[in-house]
Amino acid sequence: MAAPKKSRGPAGGQGRPGRALALILIAMVALTGGMFLADQPTPRLGIDLAGGTSITLEAKSEPGQESAINKTNMDTAVQIMERRVNGLGVSEAEVQTQGNRNIIVNIPKGTNSAQAREQVGTTAKLYFRPVLTVAQGTPTPKPSASTSGKPTSSGSPSAPAAENGKGSASPDPSATTQGRAVTGGLKADSTPDPKASTTPKGDTTPTASAADQAATAELQKKFEALDCSSAASRAKATQGTKPTDPVVACGSEAEGRPKYILGPAEVSGTDVGSAKAALDQNGQWIVQMEFTKSGAKKFQKITGRLAEQPSPQNQFAIALDGEVVSAPYVRAALSANAEISGSFTQQSAEDLANVLSYGALPLSFKEQSVTTVTAALGGEQLRAGLIAGAIGLALVVIYLVAYYRGLAFIALLSLLVSGILTYTLMSLLGPAIGFALNLPAVCGAIVAIGITADSFIVYFERIRDEIREGRTLRPAVERAWPRARRTILVSDFVSFLAAAVLFVVTVGKVQGFAFTLGLTTLLDVVVVFFFTKPVMTIMARRKFFASGHPWSGLDPKRLGAKPPLRRSRRATAPTDPKEA
């Protein structure tokens, strides 16, 4: 006689619910630990709760140039706006894209919102300026060189000359971008131009007037006092200046923050037709530029003059919003096409190409909405949101206790787990992706309480249906799970799909509601599968629930089942031989 086969447990892991509980417990501990390690014990609050100004900008393009609005250019615009806002001394400001055409700028309380709106709403200003002097970015206590007082051939004040009159003050080589060269497609080394002379070829400039000498002295004084390590000092360096004025400016952080005296702008960003990063014949990264017809003439003029100047006057600075992003030297006069080569990585070449391209884009931004919230109003809205959430949770608890009695204990534990997961994830998503909890997001979390409770109700009612059919609790728990699982998944899929569509088609704060709703819907699936079902399996083994205690919520009499009927089914043996 063959030994009977060992029966397998029902689907759902009836015999090993501890594994699922261990997994979700580990996840909760890991998320909580990560929250404190990231020094983010609370979710970041949005402008409407913390107070501040939120600006929504929509990108606009000229007719026939709609392709200018793309991800690369929008990301470049975000970087430029972020640099502008940070230059105002704003801390924790957020600038991020939203959709394909919108940029959201969130500025916290304590900032001049009018000044910030002016800074972020204008198109980037890109200019090519001749370099007159370059030095380390820290303030100069005492001038080490005198001012000649003679304007250069561009009409700008000359660089401080050395005492022998044969050259400018020598900058720190590590603090300049002189290792980059601009050529007309020829090979460019990453070393300074060996052909650069130490004196200008034929100084034919006229003698400067008294006014010019005074302006030169004032510019030199400003140059010596400039501290490029200070964000506020960098932001003020070019404030109130015109493209036709000589200016002082700071270099980029990647170049060590040198400081410059720059001549008047002779080529603007709109004169650049295109720019891209590419590999040359030696496998080195370069930036290729192509100018417009009018821009080519201007560029030929400035490069022709700079090629005859000594170092660093043979350099031109690419200045974006007053910051020098690169300052390559010139070997020969160039026209329509040029290459910038030197110590480029792929990333730095692409970044410079994006900067050059952005300055040439027919792209502007229009204010779609501006919302200003005081800190007091934000606090009131946060309290109102928390009170609304507490009221909603209390109503759900009262309903569960009144109708499901003992089963309400399992539902409340599940809600607690869902709340912990939601809170820790919201706290971690703040520094990770810039998520900020705003009032619509709080509304989404309140709605999620009902969605989560609905999943418990679906499962509990399936279990009750099985008990009404005459089954005991443990088989009822396992037989009810497959049907309840399908219903829960379909319901949550519909909710998640609605949240995803709402997130895609809306902008601004409404996306906070959609994001929170989608996140909590996903967490509902996790909690039901890895916590509610395993806990229900364990509780079905306890006498309080298994015996159908009147306060368990699973009393057969209250559910309309007849226990004698179930006993008679088990005791009755089949009498028909065919049934045997």
Describe the 3D structure.
There is one protein chain. 41% of the residues are buried. The protein has 580 residues and is of the alpha+beta class. The chain is 46% helix and 15% strand. Helix 12 (473-505) runs antiparallel to helix 13 (510-539).
Mean pLDDT figure: 75
- Could you name the ranges where pLDDT drops below 50 across 5 or more consecutive residues? 4-13, 143-178, 185-209, 564-572
Percent strand equals 15-25%
Largest sheet: 5 strands, mixed, barrel
Secondary structure class reads alpha+beta
Task: Give the proportion of residues in helices.
Answer: 40-55%
Computed Rg: 35 Å
Number of strand segments: 15
Strand order of the largest sheet: 4-7-6-12-11
Distance between the termini: 19 Å
Shape designation:
elongated
Number of helices: 16
How is the topology of this model organized?
Elements: H1 17-37, H2 47-50, E1 52-61, H3 71-87, E2 94-98, E3 102-108, H4 113-121, E4 126-135, E5 181-183, H5 210-225, H6 231-236, E6 247-251, E7 259-262, E8 267-268, E9 272-279, E10 285-291, H7 293-306, E11 316-320, E12 323-326, E13 329-330, E14 337-341, H8 346-360, E15 363-373, H9 375-404, H10 407-433, H11 439-468, H12 473-505, H13 510-539, H14 543-546, H15 556-559, H16 563-571
Parallel strand pairs: 5-13, 6-12
Antiparallel strand pairs: 1-3, 1-15, 2-3, 4-7, 4-8, 4-11, 5-14, 6-7, 9-10, 10-14, 11-12
Helix pairs in contact: 1-10, 1-13, 3-4, 3-8, 9-10, 9-11, 10-11, 10-13, 11-12, 11-13, 12-13
